[in-house]
Amino acid sequence: MTAIAVGVAIAIGAGYWIAHLQNAGNPVPLITESQAQSDSAAPADGERKILYYRNPMGLPDTSPVPKKDSMGMDYIPVYADDQPDDSGAVVVSPARIQTLGVKTAEVELRTVDAAVRASGRIEFDERRQVVVAPRFEGWIERLHVNAVGDPVRKGQPLFTAYSPELQSTGEELRIAERLASQSAAQDPIASESARRLAEATRARLRNLQVAGQAGARQVFHAPASGVVLEKEAIEGGRFMPGDALFRIADLSKVWIIADVYEQDLARVQVGQSAQVALEAYPGRSFAARVDYLYPTLDAATRSTRVRLELDNPEGLLRPGMFAQIALAAGDATPRVAVPSSAIIDDGERRVVLIALGEGRFKPQPVKLGQRGRDVVEVLDGVAAGDRVVVSANFLIDSESQLKAALSNLVEPDAGDQPQASPTRYEAQGTFDALDAEGGSVTMTHGEIPALQWPAMTMDFKIADPALVKSIAPGSPVRFVFEAGEPGEYIITGIEPVAGTAPAPSAGGHGGH
């Protein structure tokens, strides 16, 4: 037995000695735990380089290796190519592009519909209105036109009136004419006086607008064709000199009074043609012409009134109707143009986001020219063939947040200072409850890819409890929130979503 043990020991020693000789020229290094982690993190050829992993809830906590937070959520990798390059371009991951709703369009050479558009209203042509107002006192014995809106023709009888003044004036004219005729042979001087009296009486009747009717009863006729707009005449009623008994308007031509903004005035001229659309006649347009530009500007609306004239032979255009006017302007020369939605205007400069490919976007200042219905001419900044962002509502929700919109395209580096404008996020879910005293709400939301959050129920701070005053618990909602203090998220806007199913219930993650 002792001999066997000694033999085994000799065999083991011999094996160790042989192995030592084989590895003497190529020693095996000792692999430490940190080196193993470093090797596992090293990217293979073609893979993106990971700088670090950040806390999924926005807490100031990073890790050089993958890990999970206390709720079991994976830390989010931050890649080296997520940073802006020297040209100012930024890289957006495909998941974020889908979340933000980014769409692009090609810059094209196209005709810019530069028509000046304005809203207006149809009104009477003031030059085609007449008033029937007797110049003497009398009574209306009979009405021949009885209602407002009745059409009348020029010369058509309106009413018959009795006037003692006309009766006495007519009698005076007959006496003067008889004396002038009878005394012409015996007394030329008396005849001449009677003739002059008759001529003065006729002039008085002409001034009373009843020349040729010297009797006590006079028939008044319509001085123009048109429609009765006002009727104060009542059969049997008394009228005094100057009373407006009828107002008649000719509607064969009407006006449109439109409000043109100050910035478009240079493109509006007298005689310019226009097309008019009315809600009463969809699909039909009416030709009009600019007749006059009023000399004053409304300081409140920064607009000037423009008068257009158009024919109304069918009587379809009624005063008081609202109209949409397109004034012809510009030419058919193709121009470099982008969709209007591509322009971001912060009040100081105008910018488009150029899509460079592979998720890279570059803010590019542009100089604009003519504005059309759907497109804007670009004089400088982009060329035909470039692609620009035309839909990124999450980023560009108002001009006042332009800087935040551009900076939100990339994730911040570890240790970066907070942005001047907080990052905003959109989500859908269900409003569960309000804690008015604590200033928070409980929400059940779906996945939020921008933060790599799964569907869950959690608490949010709320900027104003009045935002949910009219929303019942359990209602499907769409809401906007932004990051506050580390680990804190604040809802700044919320609205019900009709017909939307509530977000799926998930494990709670309250207190954030």
From TrEMBL:
Q: What family does the database annotate?
A: Belongs to the membrane fusion protein (MFP) (TC 8.A.1) family.
What molecular function does GO assign, one term? Answer: transition metal ion binding
Q: Which residues form the signal peptide?
A: none
Give start and end of each CusB-like beta-barrel domain. 253-329
Q: What is this protein called?
A: Efflux transporter, RND family, MFP subunit
Q: Per the UniProt entry, what species is this protein from, by scientific name?
A: Thauera aminoaromatica
Top-level division of the source organism's lineage: Bacteria
Which GO biological process categories is it annotated with?
Answer: copper ion export; plasma membrane copper ion transport
Does the keyword Transport feature in the UniProt annotation? yes
Keyword annotations for this protein, in alphabetical order, are:
Ion transport, Signal, Transport
User: Which parts of the sequence belong to the CusB-like barrel-sandwich hybrid domain?
Assistant: 130-249
The residues covered by the CzcB-like C-terminal circularly permuted SH3-like domain are: 336-396
Lineage of the species this protein comes from? Bacteria, Pseudomonadati, Pseudomonadota, Betaproteobacteria, Rhodocyclales
Recorded hits in InterPro entries, A to Z, give:
Beta-barrel_RND_2 (IPR058792), BSH_CusB (IPR058790), CusF_Ec (IPR021647), CusF_sf (IPR042230), CzcB_C (IPR058649), MFP_Cation_Efflux (IPR051909), RND_pump_MFP (IPR006143)
One Pfam family name from the record?
Answer: CzcB_C
Which Gene Ontology terms of cellular component type are present?
membrane; outer membrane-bounded periplasmic space
